[in-house]
Design brief:
The chain is 5% helix and 56% strand. It contains 3 helices and 22 strands. A 14-stranded antiparallel barrel has the order 1-3-4-6-7-8-9-14-15-18-19-20-21-22. It has a two-stranded antiparallel sheet with strand order 11-12.
Length: 427
């Protein structure tokens, strides 16, 4: 019981640190330093306690009790070029470092049953621009952060097959800031831009299923499914200038610029992961895998406000794929070297592209190392992301085309660097 109390305290502390990160779409897989250095190649291996995030059926390979916790430091940077009648204007995102924590605990009840608890982020994004940049009518600041609590039961059917089931309680929060061109009276008198700040939070529930097959000491296969989660977000909207009694656009009276309540529905997709691991030597292993994420369920992000104002944002994203391969080598019993490579396909529909996610697929190269000392493990990872540019020439997104003066554009030189560590202990 002392082990479980310590584990729950560790997980609660990590949950309080959750923040936002940059990702393709905005699905994440920064769930452990070892997993990141292997480009997510932990579905077939699934042989440490972070398997609770990658493929929880694998915790049946862990005798006794295990805990792990850690943190990722994620530094994205990129440039948006917006095209105007006078030419291109370029804006670079504000430098930022986002944090993504993780924490896990597993406990073997008997020869067949294991209990686990995982706390990690499945989704998140963050982008910030200058408040007077050319795309401010679409947004200048946005963040979506989630933290998932997943109690899990794993069952070892026999020496080959293990299965798991987990119940996910997902907490989500969102904030967004954008500018609104303002006028008052009739005929309208132009005023400085008004500022809209939106914040909301909510909970959703989902399920995790896992299957791990250990055919021999050399070959193992993993399959993991994470369900769709629907989150109803409730919050409020604040306007900077309340003396703008009416916002007027082309002679049409729009709602009053007054603070009010707001709500939206965030549809988070399900995913299916497959990993095949091969271990030709005791100190050498390989894994190849794929993850399918059903982003086609993300049709729109519509925000409704009590003052009658609203934001209708079509998305109509495509399903996405992640293909990964990795290698792990132990030159010494206590020292591991790791490397991984992954490619993710584009999911954003360019006909509705906005500045929330300036990405059209990405390539990921990861490196890492780990050491073991008595009951302790310490892992480090570095990952570099090359993010493909996206075009805004065809988009109909609000605040980009129309009366803003923007006729097109594209993202350029978007990259991210991830630095990560995990600390584990076996009781």
């Amino acid at each position: 019981m002392r082990v479980l109390r310590v584990s729950c305290l560790l997980l609660a502390l990590l949950a309080g640190m959750a923040s936002t990160v940059l990702a393709e779409g905005f699905a994440l897989n920064e769930w452990s330093a070892r997993g990141v250095s292997l480009a997510g190649g932990m579905v077939g291996r699934a042989d440490d306690v972070s398997a609770l995030a990658y493929n929880a059926a694998g915790i049946t390979q862990l005798p006794g009790a295990h805990v792990m916790g850690g943190l990722a430091f994620i530094a994205p940077l990129g440039t948006i070029g917006t095209e105007h009648a006078t030419g291109m204007q370029y804006t670079t995102t504000k430098p930022a470092v986002w944090l993504a924590p993780h924490g896990y605990a597993s406990y073997q009840l008997n020869d067949n049953v294991w209990l686990g608890m995982g706390v990690f982020s499945r989704f998140g994004l963050g982008n910030s621009y200058s408040g007077n940049w050319t795309g401010r009518y679409n947004l200048y600041d946005v963040g979506v952060q989630t933290i998932s609590f997943v109690p899990t039961l794993a069952y070892k059917i026999n020496d080959i097959f293990s299965v798991s089931v987990g119940v996910e309680a997902l907490y989500a929060s969102m904030y967004m800031g954008n500018k609104i061109p303002s006028a008052a009276g009739w005929p309208p008198v132009q005023r400085p831009d008004n500022d809209l700040q939106l914040e909301g939070t909510g909970w959703g529930v989902g399920a995790h299923l896992g299957l791990h097959m250990r055919f021999s000491d050399q070959w193992s296969v993993g399959l993991a499914y994470k369900s769709q989660v629907t989150v109803n977000l409730y919050g409020d909207v604040e306007f900077e200038n309340h003396d703008h009694n009416l916002l007027i656009n082309a002679g049409k009276h729009l709602p009053e610029a007054r603070d009010c309540n707001a709500n939206t529905t965030l549809q988070l997709p399900d995913s299916l992961a497959l990993g095949v691991a091969y271990k030709p030597l005791d100190n050498l292993s390989f894994e190849a895998g794929a993850v399918w994420t059903r982003w086609s369920t993300y049709n729109a992000l519509n925000i409704y406000m009590d003052n009658g104002y609203g934001s209708i944002s079509n998305k109509e994203w495509r399903d996405g794929w992640n293909f990964n391969a990795s290698v792990e080598y132990k030159p010494l019993d206590w020292w591991s070297l790791r490397a991984g490579l992954a490619y993710e396909t584009a999911v954003v529909n360019e006909k509705h592209a906005d500045f929330f996610v300036p990405s059209s697929g990405r390539t990921i190269l990861s490196l890492g190392t780990g050491v073991e000392w008595n009951n302790w493990t310490l892992d480090f990872a570095y990952s570099h992301l090359w993010i493909n540019p996206i075009s805004y020439d065809e988009t109909d997104a609000a605040g980009i085309r129309g009366d803003t003066g923007i006729t097109g554009g594209k993202s350029e030189n978007v990259v991210a660097n991830i630095y990560m560590f995990s600390v584990g202990y076996t009781f």
